[in-house]
Amino acid sequence: MKLKERKSQLQCFTVCLAISVRNLTTDQFALLQFKHRILDPQTVLANNWNASSSVCKRVGVSCGGIHERDVALNFTRMNLTGTIPPHLGNLSFLLSLDLSRNHFYGHLPK
Ligand SMILES: *[C@@H]1O[C@H](CO)[C@@H](O)[C@H](O)[C@H]1NC(C)=O
Ligand SMILES: *[C@@H]1O[C@H](CO)[C@@H](O)[C@H](O)[C@H]1NC(C)=O
Ligand SMILES: *[C@@H]1O[C@H](CO)[C@@H](O)[C@H](O)[C@H]1NC(C)=O
Ligand SMILES: *[C@@H]1O[C@H](CO)[C@@H](O)[C@H](O)[C@H]1NC(C)=O
Question: Where does the Leucine-rich repeat-containing N-terminal plant-type domain start and stop, copy by copy (predicted)?
Answer without folding.
Answer: 26-63
